[in-house]
Structures are given as structure tokens and as C-alpha cells.
């Protein structure tokens, strides 16, 4: 090593740290160092162990094995309070503020300057203002915290950490609930904290953010340490490969081959609905995946709902499996063999507060019941089969649907759809907001349904997804189909050009 390059001693080191929760090995033998003055990002798919690692650093969880070294000395952190005393603090996703108290009170909480038993309000306030000045982060001191927007509330938490002389600050997905401009402000702030000498640990699955603000990136996969690299050695693609353990060519499955002789499953002719879409005609054949591309608001979801029967078109005809399809509503459509995976999975797809089992079997209760009532054994065995086919990771079918991650909730909707053995699947933005691994499983599920001869209509705003997953794409703009693209014509440029035509 050249003379002028100095090794900076790490502030905190994890040495062979392991943590298990019941059957889940959340972390295994993790070795990683965190340095003062650096922003160190942790990335990985959902469940990779990022939050667990952060919580071990803060004393929220204790490792089963391994050691934590603070400035070279082994420490045991038995609680977050103990971590806090050593300068290790976290900015949590769920904020821990007192909404009824002022900004000053919240920042100074537990550290007020006192004269005997009385709080010296003036000095406490001065001390808070001094911290604001030092970090150039000003908030109205007397406003009640509950009246501030989330982004400002986060600042209160950060100021609280700073006023306690934090040495290391863990941010666990802090931008998840923020609007774009708020998120970019927070990122700048995080960066400046590192520049001010703090060790910052930044957990996020937004790779662009991570690449922008971090100095070092550690990738975790399934509780294991994949690698730690300087940020300039990584790219979005290299991180995706490291996080998923799959190379990028394999992001999309092989699509089933089409037979030209097959007659269409769906024929839509001149379908219109006022203010939504106009004169729409197209067909989908068995096993064919047709993409519906276009900008948000171009009428794609509205068209999907009119085919499905949750709304009725004003004019036009639909043929389904060779017969005129007279829709009377959603139930009839499901019985006839159409499944829809809606865009708003939480409000239109799932029944919140109910179990995984109930959410999956919901449309089929009539079929699963006899005059004796619901056949619970059959319900359980069918749901179990479809949930394992769709690889839902759950801790029991009787658990609340909200115990699942977004990606797994989406898989439940696929399990539900598959359980009806439909002839056609309409999937509206099925991978929005799910992590990369779950995305791949959802693509596999769609390709699998197509290879069984089902017709698929895939609505997506991600052009890559349309290119990777569809035999053919229809592009909508302002309620009309403005292009039909397949084979070599189906390119990113062509889709974009069509989507923006007429805007
Ligand atoms: N308190 C807990 N009890 C049981 N299992 C947990 C607990 N915390 C995390 N896990 C499990 O440990 C694994 C890692 O979780 P986590 O660290 O939250 O991942 P990430 O933050 O990367 O999404 C997951 O399988 C998760 O379900
Ligand atoms: Mg997490």
C-alpha cells in the first residue's frame, strides 16, 4: 500500500454476526465495517436482512453469535437506550415523536437543561437552536410536531439524534413515505451528515438513490453478505445481479410459442365508453400475452374494467371463446373464465383485515360450498396448493393478509386468479412496487398461465416489461389504440413514440 494512503480505523465493526428468528436465519456470519464520515448503503431484496442488521447496530436486537466492536472495543448492546448512550441512533420508518409537543420539546426530550428540578426552558431552547444552526437545518421551534408534514417530522428526529452527539445514524428506508422533492432534500441532508463526520447507514431498495449518495455499498441476500464495494465500482445492473443472484438475461422467462391456427379467445370490436376510450378493436389468441402500453391516464385500466365487466361500455361488442359475451357483472365474468388483477391491489384486490386463506378463496366460496356449508378442508387444500404454486412466502394461511410483503400480496392475487382456472387473465401493473425477486416470480406466473393456453392482457407502464413479456403490444393514447407493435417493430423507441403521439 502506498505511504500516503491511510487506512481509516472503522467506527463500528460487525464480526461474524448471526441472528435467527424461529425458522428464519435473518443474518448469517455477517462481517462488515462502518466508518465515520462515510455513507454506507445496505441493499438487498425484501427479507434480505437489512433492517435486522440495522437493529443489531442500535441494540434493538441482540446477535445470537458474533461480536460488535465500537472503536475496536467489544460492546454488548442490550437495548436501544444503551446504543443511544454510545452514540448509535436510528431514524425509524415509524417515527417516535410526541405529536402534542413542540419541535423544541421533541428535540430536547430527556436532555433538557435543568436548574434543580425545573427545566431551564430558555437554555434548552438555545441549545436546540444551536444544533439547528450547526447543521443548517431550521424548523419553527414552537410549532407542534403533529402539525408538521412527514418530511419535517423526520427532520425533528434527525435533529434529536444530532443533539445527542450521534456518531452513527441508521436510516431505514427513510424516503419510502416522502414525495420526490422531499426525498431529494433528505438525501442531501444524509450526505451532508456523512460529510460532517457521522457514520451514516442508509437502507433502501431504491438503487438510484443509493448510487447517488453512498460511498460504500453492502449487498445482502438471504441473510448473507454478498459483497461490500466502493459505490463507484457498482452500477444499477451489478447491484440487481448481486441482490437476486440471477443475471439480467434471465429477468424475463421464455414466452410460449404461438400457433397461428388458433382462434382468438377474446375479440373486442369497436368498444367505446364516453370520456374513457373510443373505438377499440383487438384480439388475443390462446397463449398470447398482449401488452397494453401507454401513459398513465391513456385509458388502459378503464378499457380493462369494461372488458372485465366492472363497468359497461356504451357501444361495441366483445366475443369470448367464440361467443358473444354478454356481461352482467364481475361475478359472471369470473364464472365465465376471466380473471382480473387490478392496479390498486390494496383497495380493489385484497380484503384487508382478513386472512390469506379468505383472500384467496373469496370468489369461489359458492363452488366450495354444499348444503352442508363451506367445505373447509377442500378450501384449505386448494388454497394451499395455489399459494405454494405461486410461491407465496407466508407464516400460515390463517395470518392476516397484511402480514405479507407487497410482492407476496400480489402473488396471492395470482394464486386467487389461478384457482379459478381462467381462460383469460387481465393483469394491471402487476409488478408495481414489488421487489426484483418477486417481479421475476410474477413474470414466471404470467408466462406459466400463457403456456397453459390462457390469453393474457398485460397492462404496464414499464416499457422494459412490455418488451420482455409480450408477444405483441397495443399502445394507447388519449383513449385510442394508436399503434400495434410486434416482432422487430416492438422497440422501446416505437412504444414511446406512439405513447406520446396525440399528447
Ligand atoms: N422480529 C422478527 N420476528 C420474526 N422474523 C423476523 C423478525 N424480523 C425480521 N424477521 C425475518 O427475518 C428476515 C429478514 O428481515 P428484515 O431484516 O426485515 O429484511 P429486510 O429489511 O432486508 O427486508 C425476514 O425473513 C423476516 O421475515
Ligand atoms: Mg427492512
Task: Walk me through the topology.
Elements: E1 12-21, E2 24-34, E3 39-43, H1 50-58, E4 65-70, E5 73-75, H2 80-85, E6 88-91, H3 103-108, E7 114-115, E8 118-119, H4 121-134, H5 150-163, E9 168-172, H6 180-195, E10 199-203, H7 207-213, E11 216-221, E12 224-230, H8 236-244, E13 266-273, E14 277-284, E15 289-294, H9 300-308, E16 315-320, E17 323-324, H10 330-336, E18 338-341, H11 345-349, H12 356-361, H13 365-368, E19 369-370, E20 373-374, H14 376-389, H15 406-419, E21 424-428, H16 436-451, E22 455-459, H17 463-469, E23 472-477, E24 480-486, H18 492-500
Parallel strand pairs: 3-10, 3-11, 6-9, 9-10, 15-22, 15-23, 18-21, 21-22
Antiparallel strand pairs: 1-2, 1-4, 4-5, 7-8, 11-12, 13-14, 13-16, 16-17, 19-20, 23-24
The structure holds adenosine-5'-diphosphate (ADP) and magnesium ion (MG).
Q: Can you offer a commentary on this structure?
A:
The chain is of the alpha/beta class. The chain folds into three domains: 239 residues, P-loop containing nucleotide triphosphate hydrolases (Rossmann fold, 3-Layer(aba) Sandwich); 163 residues, Rossmann fold (3-Layer(aba) Sandwich); 70 residues, no CATH class. Helix content is 34%, strand content 25%. It contains 18 helices and 24 strands. The strands form six sheets. Strands 6-9-10-3-11-12 form a six-stranded mixed beta sheet, sandwiched between helices. A six-stranded mixed beta sheet has the order 18-21-22-15-23-24, sandwiched between helices. Strands 2-1-4-5 form a four-stranded antiparallel beta sheet, with helices on one face. Helix 14 packs across helix 15 and helix 15 runs parallel beside helix 16. It is elongated and about 85 Å long. The termini are far apart. The N terminus is likely disordered. Bound molecules: adenosine-5'-diphosphate and magnesium ion. Adenosine-5'-diphosphate binds next to strand 2 and helix 1. Magnesium ion binds next to helix 1.
Amino acid at each position: 500500500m502506498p505511504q500516503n494512503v491511510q487506512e481509516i480505523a472503522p467506527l463500528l465493526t460487525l464480526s461474524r454476526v448471526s441472528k435467527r428468528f424461529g425458522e428464519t436465519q435473518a443474518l448469517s456470519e455477517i462481517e462488515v465495517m462502518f466508518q465515520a464520515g462515510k455513507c454506507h448503503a445496505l441493499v438487498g431484496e425484501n427479507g434480505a436482512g437489512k433492517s435486522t442488521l440495522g437493529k443489531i447496530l442500535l441494540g434493538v436486537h441482540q446477535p445470537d453469535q458474533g461480536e460488535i466492536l465500537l472503536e475496536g472495543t467489544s460492546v454488548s448492546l442490550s437495548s436501544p437506550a444503551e446504543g443511544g448512550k454510545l452514540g448509535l441512533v436510528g431514524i425509524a420508518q415509524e417515527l417516535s415523536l410526541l405529536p402534542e409537543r413542540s419541535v423544541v420539546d421533541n428535540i430536547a426530550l430527556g436532555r433538557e437543561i435543568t436548574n434543580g428540578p425545573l427545566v431551564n426552558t430558555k437554555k434548552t431552547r438555545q441549545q436546540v437552536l444551536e444544533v439547528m444552526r450547526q447543521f443548517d437545518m431550521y424548523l419553527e421551534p414552537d410549532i407542534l410536531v403533529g402539525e408538521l408534514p412527514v418530511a419535517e417530522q423526520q427532520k425533528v428526529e434527525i435533529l434529536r439524534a444530532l443533539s445527542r452527539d450521534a456518531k452513527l445514524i441508521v436510516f431505514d428506508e427513510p424516503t419510502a413515505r416522502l414525495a420526490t422533492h422531499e426525498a431529494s432534500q433528505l438525501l442531501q441532508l444524509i450526505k451532508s451528515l456523512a460529510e460532517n463526520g457521522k457514520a451514516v447507514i442508509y437502507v433502501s431498495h431504491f438503487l438510484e438513490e443509493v448510487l447517488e449518495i453512498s460511498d460504500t455499498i453492502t449487498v445482502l441476500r438471504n441473510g448473507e453478505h454478498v459483497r461490500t464495494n466502493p459505490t463507484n465500482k457498482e452500477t444499477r445492473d451489478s447491484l440487481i445481479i448481486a441482490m437476486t443472484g440471477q443475471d439480467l438475461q434471465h429477468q424475463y422467462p421464455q414466452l410460449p410459442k404461438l400457433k397461428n391456427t388458433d382462434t382468438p379467445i377474446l375479440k373486442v370490436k369497436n368498444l367505446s365508453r364516453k370520456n374513457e376510450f373510443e373505438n377499440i378493436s383487438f384480439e388475443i389468441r390462446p397463449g398470447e400475452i398482449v401488452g397494453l402500453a401507454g401513459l398513465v391516464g391513456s385509458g388502459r385500466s378503464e378499457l380493462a374494467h369494461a372488458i372485465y365487466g366492472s363497468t359497461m361500455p356504451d357501444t361495441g361488442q366483445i366475443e369470448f371463446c367464440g361467443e358473444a359475451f354478454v356481461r352482467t357483472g364481475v361475478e359472471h365474468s369470473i364464472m365465465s373464465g376471466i380473471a382480473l388483477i387490478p392496479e390498486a391491489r390494496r383497495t380493489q384486490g385484497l380484503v384487508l383485515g382478513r386472512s390469506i386463506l379468505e383472500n384467496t378463496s373469496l370468489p369461489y366460496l359458492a363452488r366450495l360450498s354444499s348444503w352442508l356449508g363451506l367445505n373447509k378442508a377442500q378450501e384449505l387444500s386448494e388454497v394451499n396448493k395455489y399459494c405454494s404454486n405461486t410461491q407465496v412466502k407466508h407464516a400460515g394461511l390463517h395470518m392476516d393478509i397484511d402480514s405479507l410483503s407487497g410482492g407476496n400480496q400480489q402473488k396471492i392475487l395470482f394464486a386467487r386468479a389461478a384457482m379459478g382456472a381462467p381462460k383469460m387473465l387481465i393483469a394491471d401493473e402487476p409488478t408495481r412496487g414489488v421487489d426484483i425477486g418477486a417481479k421475476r416470480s410474477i413474470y414466471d406466473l404470467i408466462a406459466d398461465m400463457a403456456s397453459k393456453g390462457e390469453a393474457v392482457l398485460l397492462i404496464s407502464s414499464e416499457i422494459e416489461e412490455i418488451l420482455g413479456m409480450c408477444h405483441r403490444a397495443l399502445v394507447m393514447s388519449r383513449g385510442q389504440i394508436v399503434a400495434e407493435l410486434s416482432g422487430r417493430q416492438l422497440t422501446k423507441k416505437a412504444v414511446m413514440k406512439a405513447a406520446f403521439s396525440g399528447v
